[in-house]
Amino acid sequence: MTKIIYPGQTIGIIGGGQLGRMMALAAKEAGFKIAVLEPTMDSPCGQVADIRIVAPYDDEAALEELAEVSDVITYEFENIDYDGLKRLTQMAYVPQGAELVRITQNRVTEKEAIVKAGCPVAPYIVANTYEELVASIDKISYPCIVKTARGGYDGKGQQLLNSAADLPLAEGLFAHSQCIAEGFVPFVKEVSVIVQRNGDGELYCQPVGENIHVHHILHETIVPARIEKMTAQSAEQEAIKIADYLNLVGTLAVEMFVLENGEIIINELAPRPHNSGHYSIEACNISQFHQHIRAICGWPLRKPQLWAPSIMVNVLGQHVMPLSNSIAKYPEWSLHLYGKAEAKVNRKMGHVTIMTKDLEATLQQIESSGIWSE
Ligand SMILES: Nc1ncnc2c1ncn2[C@@H]1O[C@H](COP(=O)(O)OP(=O)(O)O)[C@@H](O)[C@H]1O
Ligand SMILES: [Mg+2]
């Protein structure tokens, strides 16, 4: 029997961003208390937490304090200190463990795990240095994408190479970490599956979302994804294979490419709720955040069901003003803002979810609102 965490007990969250905030809001509905470890005082999650521990993620005393005040500990992003999390598993109840973070915070170990789970990835090579990249790039063909093994997000730490002449563009990436280079996948759609599991092995996927990126940043998620039913089923099967292989407890988001023939290639993993699952707050009978809390608290999971087709649109810094100016025109739009002070360009400030009977008409409405035009 898995340990059950009850309302009134405290959930500790490492990381104070919007994912932590939305986890916290879901947990507080059920009467849990929230402690958050985050280096900044006024963080999105800190604003709604009961206990704030303001310190770096790898601060030993702070981790001990978090262990002391928390009945269960989770995290909202994968770039936390693995050794710190490992130590925490010995001091506190961390049902997700530390292994999943170790694997997913490095693209090399992540790709290996996906392959070992029996799932397809783009052809790739690992290069520890620029010289190794140059020496082994012929094993994959152009165009290809070089990605830092660690720390990349929203397309940062990546370089597209169209031919050997572009190689020097990737040299700078090695200042950060070792890299992988992978073949460019001629996808027709990008989709993601959020799979969640509790300690008793109950497992469910959220409905498959179709993701549209602009400048490598997620712009819209459309649900259900506009793909064949068979393709959606195999997307879920792939995500479940990876979750099983990793002995998942908690949440795993699996980003995938869909090829013209319906084949699926796995792109990357995130061991936490994901931007592409935010639609589930309104559009499903159980959101990715509520399900995550249930999973780590040893509660039974609920089978996700989509109430209506939906579109989630991200609100970046440059969209906040135009959105505020026109929000009164759109009663169907559910607005989420994360409480970040500074609306910097391309910073994720919030999102809008729209449930609709007509996806194409709503996509058109979003476009013609002018809020997201460059
Ligand atoms: N091998 C690839 N082929 C084609 N497009 C890619 C490939 N890898 C990444 N991309 C594009 O770049 C985006 C960001 O890459 P990703 O690996 O997901 O990194 P991150 O989301 O961490 O920035 C993807 O969503 C996709 O649009
Ligand atoms: Mg990605």
Strand fraction band?
Answer: 25-35%
Each distinct ligand: adenosine-5'-diphosphate, magnesium ion
| Radius of gyration of CA atoms, rounded to a whole number | 20 Å
Order of helices and strands: EHEEHEHHHEHEEEEEEEHEEHHEHEEH
Structural class: alpha+beta
Strand runs, count: 17
CATH class of the largest domain: Alpha Beta
First-residue to last-residue Cα separation: 53 Å
What is the fold named in CATH at topology level of the largest domain?
D-amino Acid Aminotransferase, Chain A, domain 1
Sheet with the most strands, sense and barrel status: 9 strands, antiparallel
- Roughly what percent helix? 25-40%
How many domains make up the coordinates?
3
Q: What are the low-pLDDT stretches, counting only 5+ consecutive residues below 50?
A: none
CATH-defined architecture of the largest domain: 2-Layer Sandwich
Mean pLDDT across the residues is: 97
| Approximate shape | globular
The number of helical runs is 11
Protein name: N5-carboxyaminoimidazole ribonucleotide synthase
Family: Belongs to the PurK/PurT family.
Subunit structure: Homodimer.
Binding site for ATP: 107, 147, 152-158, 182-185, 190, 213, 267-268
